[in-house]
Specification:
Layout lengths: L1 H14 L3 H26 L1 H5 L3 H26 L3 H5 L2 E5 L7 H16 L5 H10 L9 H6 L1 E5 L7
Antiparallel strand pairs: 1-2
Helix pairs in contact: 2-4, 4-6, 6-7
């Protein structure tokens, strides 16, 4: 039994997305998010972002969540992927090697990070701590630990 678990764990570790793959996917997703956020910035005006009030922070948070769902919702629901992850053939899985469900991805993986990183002053620091966890052996960020997920290469039989 122990040998089976070791073989299974080794196979999973082999499928783990590399830090480079995750970084490249994140860069693609960030560029798309920035482009999708431009209407919000033009509407509110860049001056308002210099000293944002709570209404602007909450509005920005809601806007970013809605944009994320509009851009990635279909891919997340059907494949466990964002646009960047789809491009790199990696996906979000639960710890049993199955595609993570949309509810888990949005409510436990995405939303906590969005809320925390929007906290003035400390949000950026907490965001960096979240990302720094990728340098551990299991390549899982804090949001992966919260949601019970990991990012792996898409199995060959599921690639499009």
């Amino acid at each position: 039994m122990a040998e089976f678990e070791e073989v299974t764990q080794a196979a999973t570790e082999e499928r783990l997305a590399s830090r480079g793959e995750r970084f490249a996917a994140a860069v693609i997703d960030i560029v798309i998010s920035i482009l999708a956020s431009l209407p919000f910035f033009f509407y509110t005006g860049l001056e308002a972002l210099e000293n944002p009030d709570m209404t602007l922070v909450v509005t920005g948070l809601v806007y970013s969540i809605l944009i994320y769902i509009v851009i990635n919702g279909y891919l997340l629901f059907h494949f466990g992927q964002t646009v960047g992850k789809r491009f790199l053939n990696i996906r979000i899985e639960d710890l049993q090697d199955r595609q993570a469900g949309l509810g888990r991805i949005l409510l436990m993986r995405f939303l906590p990070v969005q809320v925390v990183t929007n906290i003035p002053f400390i949000g950026g620091i907490l965001g960096l701590i979240n990302i720094a966890f990728i340098f551990r052996k299991d390549h899982r960020c804090v949001h992966d630990h919260i949601a019970g997920t990991r990012v792996c290469r898409v199995p060959d039989e599921l690639r499009v």
